[in-house]
Write a structure and sequence with these properties.
heterodimer; A: mainly alpha; Cytochrome Bc1 Complex, Chain C; Cytochrome Bc1 Complex, Chain D, domain 2; 18 helices; 4 strands; 61% helix; B: Rieske Iron-sulfur Protein; 2 domains; four-stranded antiparallel sheet; 1 helix; binds FE2/S2 (inorganic) cluster
Chain lengths: 492, 186
């Protein structure tokens, strides 16, 4: 025992580690810092999980375009607990992004970025960018079809940069194609450059927290006055602050513990992400989708009008990042309480709603045709029951000409164009003919691709699509269908 | 920035602040400092050159497009649009399967072809040909193109990218390599 104490004393006298750590644990934090303050710690915890599981994967992953995909399959299927390490790495990365977003939102709503903590915010924004870059490069590491075509999308966006676009694209891809050097480039970013930057920034972020202390919960009518803030804050901390450990750390520990258990449970149940299809670019029967953190971007690029697209894609990210950096300089003094900063609260609400709804749209991706809609989906019986042979022929042409890839019938089919269950209530046969022939409103023109007979048939069929088929729209030149004895109204 | 000779305010720095021997010492130290800075600068530049050259290497494009064969003309009958694959002539040792490349060949009539890149002109996803409706559809954001590659609907700002082609010894060849992009705009 005495020997141990002696050894510890020796270590302390030579290293000073204890003297370094003690203030980290015992520094005073505001009594008001309660559950709102746990999200930063949780982000850090998930980062640590990423480092540990990432190093584990690094011992098995083959960073080579020829072998990466196979090595992941090997980790998933052969290596003991390999799938679980991959699942932890994937889910923890999503969790880290979520925790970071909540932490950032809390800091923004409480205006904790105001004097003297401007740099805390700025290092935080840098961390946000690094973490998102880690998420994107991580998706590339899977080297499956999503990764390959996702890179293609990144390359195409870069390509649109004026003047040097294609050079920058080559720099990004490590050559004129998406190939071996592309993966290694992203590997270097994902395992060396970005984690290194993240560790350095986390260190800085923590040092700044120690330097300026944790901000108090905002109170209306207690504005930040830069001239006197520091002195007053220190007095308040000395008077009724509480030591970080254990008063605040216990909440961090409880929350992090719950998060950790949830992570393990989710990872065990849902397993690792991918790898998806083999990275063979000639297998084009694929449907590339980004990972969750980029779903909102996928939604945005899909919904942008083509005319403004390039400008928006290239300029908006820069504007958003610049705005984030400028946040503490737009007002670093004054009220912190959300109730006194309605504009900022609205801005935060707008950002949250925008990202949430774009993510929602991205997940639904109604703009994507259902590529096998025409061949795989049955025509619901109510749309062919009681039809004439011509109209039935129209139903066949409708299916055959891939209309179903973009138009739903009876709730199944593409959602790129409107559902056609009751199209005859909106279009007369003449209008239907025109629309099919000439397209328009984001629909291709089929005039050249359908024969006269096919056109008549398809219009005949579409003209029967009303909520109750008993009263079909009149078809000029065609006989009205005879009333059907047991005509029940077609369910919608 | 640098502590030049004869600097002032030198409490505790060791020089005697104006004495002749102090001046000499200060001068020598100033010289050493400049020498050190200069050597470091030259060294840094020399060692940075290969690093910069290495990192910027891909921009120099040492590998160029080449003519590659897509197969015998019989594979591409008049009036049809057919899927074709080839090995990208631009290769790196660790590419694996990623150099396998696909394209769409349309034979307008005997001896007249159009060869379209597989990559959607919007953001590069692989477009698929639908024979019955004579459309190319993109799975990503719903771009659509007509048989001749022109834009039909959706977000693409232009028609499909086309390869230059030629016929040699009964085979169809295309000028392939670089991932198609804005440079191919006409
Ligand atoms: S990549 Fe084809 S529509 Fe966007």
């Amino acid at each position: 025992m005495r020997f141990l104490a002696g050894a510890l004393a020796w270590l302390e006298s030579r290293s000073g580690l204890g003297a370094f750590i003690k203030p980290l644990m015992s520094h005073h934090v505001p009594r008001s810092a309660t559950w709102w303050y746990v999200f930063g710690s949780a982000t850090l915890m998930f980062f640590v999980i990423q480092v540990v599981t990432g190093v584990c994967l690094g011992t098995m992953y083959a960073p080579s375009a020829a072998e990466a995909w196979q090595s992941l399959r090997y980790i998933d299927k052969e290596v003991p607990a390999g799938w679980m390490i991959r699942a932890l790495h994937g889910w923890s990365s999503n969790a880290m992004v979520v925790m970071m977003a909540i932490h950032m939102l809390q800091v923004f709503l409480h205006a904790s970025y105001k004097y003297p903590r401007e740099l805390n915010w700025i290092t935080g924004v840098c961390l946000l960018l690094v973490v998102l870059a880690l998420a994107f490069t991580g998706q590339v590491m899977r080297w499956d079809q999503d990764a390959y075509w996702g890179l293609g999308i990144g390359a195409s966006i870069t390509d649109r940069i004026p003047v040097f676009g294609s050079q920058i694209r080559d720099l990004l891809l490590g050559g004129p194609i998406i190939g071996g050097e592309t993966l290694n480039r992203f590997y270097a970013l994902h395992v060396f450059i970005l984690p290194g930057a993240a560790i350095a920034l986390v260190g800085l972020h923590m040092a700044l927290i120690m330097r300026h202390g944790i901000s108090e919960m905002p109170r209306p009518g207690a504005p930040v006055r830069p001239a006197s803030y520091k002195k007053e804050y220190e007095e308040r901390m000395a008077r009724d602050g509480v030591p970080f450990h254990p008063d605040a750390s216990q909440r961090d520990m409880i929350f992090c513990g719950v998060c950790l258990i949830a992570l393990v449970v989710v990872a065990a149940i849902y397993g690792p992400f991918g790898p998806g299809g083999e990275p063979d670019p000639t297998l084009i029967d694929t449907n590339p989708r980004p990972d969750y953190p980029f779903m909102w971007l996928f939604g945005a690029v899909s919904l942008l009008p083509p005319a403004s697209e390039t400008f928006v894609m290239l300029v908006t990210p820069g504007v958003i990042v610049l705005a984030l950096f400028l946040v503490p300089f737009l007002g670093n003094a004054g009220e912190r309480a959300p109730s006194r900063r309605p504009v900022m609260v609205l801005a935060a609400a707008f950002a949250v709603i925008a990202i949430a709804s774009l993510t929602w749209e991205g997940l639904a991706s109604r703009w994507s045709p259902v590529m096998n809609g025409w061949s795989a989906l049955p025509t619901p019986a109510q749309f062919v029951r009681g039809r004439t042979p011509l109209e039935m022929q129209g139903a066949v042409v409708f299916q055959f000409a891939q209309c179903r890839n973009c138009h739903a019938l009876g709730g199944s089919g593409g959602q790129r164009g409107p559902a056609l269950d009751d199209v005859a209530t909106r279009f007369t046969p003449e209008q239907l003919t025109r629309q099919v022939q000439q397209g328009g409103g984001n629909m291709p023109a089929y005039g050249k691709n359908l024969s006269r007979a096919q056109m008549d048939a398809i219009v005949g069929f579409l003209s029967t699509l009303t909520p109750s088929y008993e009263t079909p729209a009149a078809i000029p030149g065609a006989m009205l269908p005879l009333p059907i004895s047991s005509a029940e109204p077609a369910p919608r | 920035m640098s502590e030049g000779p004869g600097h002032t305010g030198c409490e505790g720095c060791g020089c005697t602040g104006g004495g002749s021997s102090g001046n000499r010492r200060a001068a020598r130290r100033g010289f050493m400092f400049k020498l050190g800075g200069g050597l470091m600068g030259v060294g840094a530049l020399l060692s940075a050159l290969p690093v910069i050259g290495f990192v910027l290497g891909p921009v120099r494009r040492t590998q160029k497009n080449q003519w590659v064969a897509l197969g015998a003309l019989a594979k591409f009958p008049p009036g049809a649009t057919r899927f074709a694959t080839y090995m990208n002539p631009i290769q790196q040792p660790t590419d694996g399967e990623s150099i396998k490349t696909a394209c769409w060949v349309r034979c307008i009539s005997e001896g007249k072809y159009q060869v379209f890149a597989i990559n959607c002109a919007h953001l590069g996803c692989p477009v698929r040909w639908f024979e019955q409706s004579k459309l190319f559809l993109c799975p990503c954001h719903g771009g659509a193109y007509y048989e001749d590659g022109s834009r039909a609907a959706g977000p693409p700002p232009r028609g499909l990218f086309e390869y230059e082609w030629k016929v040699e010894q009964g085979a169809l060849l295309i000028d392939a390599g670089r991932l198609p992009g804005m440079e191919d705009s006409t």
